[in-house]
Amino acid sequence: MNWLKSTLSAAVGTQEPIYGPEAIQSVAQQTAETPYTVLTKDHLRWKAYQYTNVETQTFYIMADNGTLVFVQVIYSNIAGIHTTAVFNTKIFDLSGEGKHVWHSDALSNFMFDDKMLCFGADNMTITLNEEGDAYHIKSTVNPDSVVDLKFTRKAPGFVIGKDGTSYFGTDPKNPWGSMVHSFWGRCSVEGSITTKEKTYDLGGRGVFIPAVQGMKPHHAAARWNFINIQTPTYSGIMMEYTTPPSYGSTKVNVGAILKDDEIVYAGVTNTATHTGSTTDPDSEWPEPTSIKWEWSGKTADGKDLSAEVDGSLGKRLDRIDVMGEVPGFIKTIAGSVAGTRPYIYQFAPNEKLSLKLNIGGEEITEEGFMFSESTFIS
């Protein structure tokens, strides 16, 4: 048993000491000088760190015909000795019956190009074009999920602050961990995913988020909230995580309001509030039933901006037990040793929600297609 616990802790880790909130240098500290930075091609390079980290590229698709999809590559490194790569696709069943088309496939012979801008493996590629404003994702890794998609950036991409990164550690000059998210918050999408049953036309809008968790994921965050709302004119993006008590249960929130060719606002003065919840009897987590997301700050030309999405989440799309594939006795030990019980709740209400904006006194309301996630880890 002691051997098993020590082996498991190498992967998931035991609980950390209480370092306090001063042991996280939130990206919010950078915004006093630099509210946000527009992404260049160089920002899109894969990092492939040689220490424990998880690096992802996630493409969310909201097709004009109402289909909701995400496509994702997860590249992970455990302790610098073992790397894996997985390609995930998920076509959501919006009927409420939970018949999602979900595939998760381990990749073989994965590699990066010499500029670290493109990723490839046997039977799949993610290629960034020369201009740095479009990705082409192709995969025949799984014959029941043949992917051919093109994402083209419409609004400028961004990171919050100078580099988008929050750093973890008691010595700010020598951090032992990090967290960064970059965003293409408003994209056009063309292409399809073909299954054995049908071909899904996925022309519409999309969001691309590359991210790096440069430490054990459950050490960086205990909870997450994410929203992506796309209206005819605007896109609203918000990503919020709360650190474990070891880092003072600190909230880090990054978000933006975008239009085609324009970042209307990007910053950290945003909130995600669960205005209603119910106890999930299986996980015992307080599953949200309604959430209010609020953005506030200044536009690029100095106008006051406030925005909100407030409403019922409706019936959840899915609940993911992240450790569901782990043998039960190992899951029990992981929970007792590391305090981890990761569950992801996904929502896309059938009733369109409204994005309400006030920009320099001008009030604007547009309905849109919303997808959100709330995650509980520890």
UniProtKB/TrEMBL annotation:
GTP-binding found in the keyword field: no
Keyword Nucleotide-binding: no
One GO term describing the cellular component: cytoplasm
Transmembrane segments: none
UniProt keyword terms in alphabetical order: Cytoplasm
GO BP of this protein: response to oxidative stress
Cited InterPro entries: Ceramide-binding_SVF1, Svf1-like_C, Svf1-like_N
UniProt domain Svf1-like C-terminal: residue ranges: 215-378
Family affiliation: Belongs to the SVF1 family.
Protein name: Survival factor 1
Compartments reported by the entry: Cytoplasm
Record-linked Pfam families: Svf1, Svf1_C
Domain Svf1-like N-terminal: 54-213
